[in-house]
Amino acid sequence: MTPTANRSATVNSAGKTVLITGGTGSFGKTMAKHLLDQGYEQVRIFSRDEWKQEEMRVRMAEPRLRFYIGDVRSRASVDSAMEGVDLVFHAAALKQVPSCEFFPMEAVATNIEGSNNVIESAIAARAECVVCLGTDKAVYPINAMGMTKALMEKVAQSAARRLDPGETRICSVRYGNVMYSRGSVIPLFINQIREGGPLTVTEAAMTRFMLPLRDSVRLVEFAFQNARQGDVFIKKAAACTIGDLIAALQKLFGTNVEVQSIGLRHGEKLHETLASLAEVHRAEDMGDFLRIPMDDRDLNYAKFFSEGEQVSQQLTDYDSESTEQLNVSEVCELLLSLPEVREQLDSWKSLTNVSSTTRDC
After folding, report:
1. What is the pLDDT of residue 313?
2. What is the DSSP letter of 290?
3. What is the number of other CB atoms lying within 10 angstroms of the CB of residue 310?
4. Is residue 344 one of the residues assigned to a domain?
5. Per the domain annotation, does 32 fall within a domain?
6. Model confidence over 124-142: pLDDT tens digits?
7. Which EC number applies (predicted)?
């Protein structure tokens, strides 16, 4: 791994138009607000759900925010939203692991074919940069969601290989569990606590990266500012066991509800990996981030037999078991940094007259 300074390029947002696919999700809403605060001229939200778009339109009441109904599976609908766009943040995806296990071809249609539509549309429209949002489940994938997101990365790099300097930059990012995002286990656990339990845990020893939503925005912005063709960017993150996450929530809410083990769900891993050993070997350490360059060798098979890279035996995968592990108090502090958790705690305190000391970590 090569260390470099943690740097960010200067970005001029004036006059820039940004497209966010899947823009009504947790990331899209947070990113849209951030971009508007940064002074971008127009932020376009592209998604299938007109009701979520209407809620977002009313809540944000921002004339620079534009909404496009469409599906990444339809190249025509993507093209209609892409005209005049400078930057693309591609967040549209099927992300629920069990659902993708039962409907893998739907995951293929959205996560692979849909991503290809977005990338090709951006290239045709001469967009400056496309950042594809990935997942730790794409490394050593064992489920359909991870496999299709891994192939999304390959599609992005395939497009990047054929582009010349000065053309659209294509890159990807990977991150783990985004805390309190849609589908996160944290709001589920909080609801179960408020209802008196039981807390349903798949496996208490399971580890997951813990990434606040604000850090996922930082990662995507950093990728846009620093990307070369085909790069994959990772935000370094600490992890914790699900058992410690539950203990931290119980401590914050001042409860001791029953915890019920239900076993692993379809396609779940005990630990997640953000970068394989081979990728760690190639990675550039950029402070809070890792840049994994694409393998840019051409399709000359002789090279794969006569050229290679030695990997240090001291390196390991960058995974949720070997990264920095948060203890219960540290998980408490991280949870309290989330406005959604603080709001839930305030509501809980008003309902139960629980002392504010339950917030102490």
Report:
1. 63
2. E
3. 6
4. no
5. yes
6. 999 999 999 999 999 999 9
7. 5.1.3.2
Using only C-alpha atoms, the chain has a radius of gyration, in whole angstroms, of 21
Closest CA to 335 of 271, 244, 261: 244
Predicted TM-score (pTM) of the model is 0.90
Above 50 in pLDDT, residue 357?
no
Q: What is the pLDDT of residue 268?
A: 84
Number of Cβ within 10 Å of residue 61's Cβ equals: 8
Q: Which amino acid appears at position 50 of this protein?
A: E
The closest alpha carbon to 98, from 264, 261, 243, 259, belongs to 264
Strands 273-275 and 318-319: antiparallel
- Using one digit for the tens of pLDDT, what is the confidence trace for 17-49? 999 999 999 899 999 999 999 999 999 999 999
CATH number at residue 127: 3.40.50.720
- 29 assigned to active site: no
pLDDT digits (tens, 9 = 90+) for 138-192: 999 999 999 999 999 999 999 999 999 899 999 999 998 889 887 789 999 999 9
> Is 30 part of any domain?
yes
pLDDT by residue (tens digit) across 197-234?
A: 899 998 999 999 999 999 999 999 999 999 999 999 99
Which residue intervals of 199-276 are DSSP H helices? 213-226, 242-253
Q: What's phi and psi for 178, nearest 5 deg? A: -90, 115
Q: Number of folded domains in the chain?
A: 1
Which has more confidence, 2 or 184? 184
The Cα 138–Cα 282 span in angstroms is 17
In a domain? residue 151: yes
Residue partners of 334: CB distance under 8 A and separation at least 6: 179, 210, 212, 326
Q: In terms of residue numbers, what domain contains 161?
A: 17-176+213-236
Q: Which residues are CB-neighbours of 134 under 8 A, at least 6 positions away?
A: 149, 152, 153, 172, 173, 174, 175, 232
Strand, helix or coil at 189?
A: helix
**β-bridge pairing 273-275 and 129-133:** unpaired
Which of these is catalytic: 137, 149, 236, 269? 137
Q: How far is CA 100 from CA 155, 206, 342, in A?
A: 19, 21, 32
